[in-house]
Amino acid sequence: MTISKLAPLAVAVLTLCSCSQSVELPTGTSRGYQSARFVETKRPDRTASPDALEKDPEFNASIRQAITRKFDANGVPVTGGSTDLIIAYMLLRQNSASTTMNNDYFGNGRDPMAILDEAHTSGVIKNKSPDDFHRGAIVIDVLDAKTNKLVFRNFAVRPVLGGLGASARQNRIDSAVSEALTPFFKR
After folding, report:
1. Which of 111, 120, 144, 179 has the highest CB neighbour count under 10 A?
2. Residue 171's domain is classified under what CATH number?
3. What secondary structure letter does DSSP report for 182?
4. What is the domain range of residue 133?
5. Can you tell me whether residue 26 is helix, strand or coil?
6. pLDDT in tens, 105-117
7. Who's near 129: CB < 8 A, 6+ residues apart?
8. What's the pLDDT tens digit per position in 3-53?
9. Residue among 55, 28, 6 nearest 154 (CA)
10. Closest among 182, 144, 179 to 39, alpha carbons compared
């Protein structure tokens, strides 16, 4: 499976704007934080299959690189070990009948099922359009490493598109990551 078939999912599905009270969307900022790292996951990377494109290690590496570039560009380098912040993300895929998620890079303790349920309710059940659709989303959480408190959560939604070249795919990933994280870096 090539990365060209993976990119559409990188950035796509959540309609949390009409969020219920069950999904927390804190709006903290990067002010006062000096470093970040990705959540440590013990789940092995899986070989991609047509039904699980978002599980491809190359695809997730592109997402992690985009997130790292955004943090680095805003003066909060992404390193390993002891840091001020922990970055986690999950991917959602949705069509007019179902919503699925990959929470392999989301860590524990923040109820990804509530996010999945809200995305499904908002995007599928309450959707009044008769048209078929395919979209995906990235949900990015930023936690305080000392307290494990959720400081910031945001998301970006994109239609799933096929046949994109590598550059176009990476631009879509970068754009979605930037959309989700820009409010965190506003000072």
Report:
1. 120
2. 3.30.160
3. G
4. 3-185
5. coil
6. 999 988 889 988 8
7. none
8. 333 333 333 333 343 334 468 888 999 999 999 999 987 655 555 444 454
9. 28
10. 144
